[in-house]
């Protein structure tokens, strides 16, 4: 994989366990979108816990990347225009990665709580996960925009 987007998509697939697993239904729609579950599918604490661990591992990898990014910035000269641009770019990536790390932490918490049955029902689980989007907004995709040209 050569692009950040492709690598990120692969990491998300691995973390989400996109290997054909479907906890809520056979047609990949969560039970709350179908107006009720079929009664034959049961949630597995192990599956929720494994997903939480995977997201936690991703968060650890992000923290490692942040540390490496910071280390590589030491000794950067203060005078040149390119150094200023690089510092600005580095600060932008640090903000982005800190946001992704925070989202991973929140997602890990929700996954683990779902596995430990801290939520009363499917609707409570849905509500907990829907709340993540209100806390963290994804960035727009890079490229493909004419920017008014």
Describe this entry's structure for a reader.
The protein is mostly helical and 149 residues long. Helix content is 61%, strand content 0%. The protein has helices at residues 4-16, 45-73, 81-115, 122-135. The longest helix has 35 residues, at 81-115.
Largest sheet descriptor: none
Q: Secondary-structure element order, as H and E?
A: HHHH
Subunit organisation of the chains: single chain
Radius of gyration: 19 Å
- Overall average residue pLDDT: 76
Number of strands: 0
As residue ranges, the low-confidence spans are 19-26
End-to-end distance, in Å? 30 Å
Counting helices, strands and paired strands, the structural category is mainly alpha
Helix segment tally: 4
Shape: elongated
Helix content: 55-70%
Strand-residue proportion? under 5%
Task: Kindly summarize this structure in a few lines.
With 149 residues, this protein is mostly helical.
